[in-house]
Specification:
By secondary structure, this protein is α/β, with parallel strands linked by helices. Helix content is 26%, strand content 18%. Strand 10 and strand 11 form a beta hairpin.
Length: 330
């Protein structure tokens, strides 16, 4: 059989998430991964996704690698630059993520006669060299050597006014906060109360939580202790019409499946809308996350559907999904 048909490489590096818990119609992806002949995953845990791997390649611990942020500085309120040295030394038997990916890519994509040369060249161009090159061509002409002399980082001053306006490509150089397409979408109203009572449908939206960071922090006992956070928020009027009270279990259903969730009654929700956090659902067979399994919760994406799309972008619609909710004994 062709190599590309029989081998799937799932390099789950920096997603901070398990794919099975973070895509629409996740049960369908779960089944599909189970049909692959060979899966290689880069991860330190057997989670909902990597449990399908025949080969699991654990990278070196995060504290044994250097770090320079390439994304979150876009949210900074001042111009700053900071390079973090590894906190603990990398052991001889350990490989960093980029080393594993480089080795896999070389073995799969580079012809055998050229493989040794390609791998040697790739290891020569280490991430530190790339960061140093980017710093040198940046507006402040920094170098990695200079940043290393300032372990707490460099404050390069306040943000420069006027830069944002230069990047707006509209004819009048003004940001259109209410383009017609978005206004039209916003005018789509929730079903009228009478219609909702007749159909029993609600609208499901997601939410994120401070102690989660998607799904990968649920295996920390300190971060999951206390009352369950995987609850379905519901307005008191919607709860009363379904004979639900705080802590009751309810069956949440869509056109592709159902899950059972505990409800949390709150007037913070709009009538007709319910909310479930994403990233939970650690009860699948083969998951080796003891603490996360004790606080498994339910996966919102076992009811989200790939038939429900955001009409403007064509992306899957993770929010605004029509659902039904009925009380259940378990």
């Amino acid at each position: 059989m062709n190599l590309w048909a029989s081998v799937a490489f799932l390099c789950l590096l920096a997603g901070a998430a398990s794919a099975i818990l973070h895509v629409v119609d996740a049960k369908n992806l779960d089944r599909a991964l189970g049909t692959l002949e060979h899966v290689v995953s880069i991860d330190g845990y057997l989670n909902e996704t990597t449990r399908h791997a025949r080969v699991l390649l654990p990278p070196a611990p995060p504290l044994s690698r250097a770090h320079y942020d390439l994304a979150l500085y876009a949210f900074a309120i001042r111009n700053v630059a900071k390079y973090n040295e590894p906190v603990v030394p990398q052991q001889a038997s350990e490989r960093l993520d980029w080393e594993i990916v480089t080795e896999l890519a070389g073995r799969v994509f580079v012809p055998r006669p050229l493989r040794r040369i390609a791998l040697r060249a790739a290891h020569h161009v280490r991430p530190e060299r790339i960061v140093d090159a980017l710093l040198r061509v940046g507006p402040h002409r920094l170098t990695l050597a200079k940043l290393r002399r300032f372990p707490h980082g460099l404050d390069l001053g306040p943000l420069e006014p006027g830069r944002f306006k230069d990047r707006i490509a509209t004819p009048d150089r003004m940001a259109d906060l209410a383009p017609k397409d978005l206004v039209r979408e916003a005018e789509i109203q929730l079903p009228a109360e009478a219609d909702r009572d007749a159909t029993g449908e609600l609208v499901l939206i997601g939410r994120r939580q401070l102690r989660d960071n998607n799904s990968w922090m649920h295996n920390s006992r300190r971060l999951v202790k206390g009352p369950s956070r995987c609850t379905l928020l519901i307005h008191p009027s919607d709860a009363a019409s379904r004979h639900l009270t705080d802590g009751d279990l309810a069956r949440l259903g869509s056109d592709i499946g159902t899950i059972v969730v505990p409800v949390e009654v709150t007037d913070a929700m709009r009538p007709g809308v319910v909310s479930l956090p994403h990233g939970w659902g650690h009860d699948r067979e083969g998951v080796r996350l003891d603490t996360a399994r004790e606080h498994a919760g339910a996966s919102m994406n076992d009811v989200t559907s790939d038939h429900h799309l955001d009409t403007l972008s064509g992306n899957a619609g993770f929010s605004g999904l029509p659902v039904t909710l009925v009380r259940t004994g378990g």
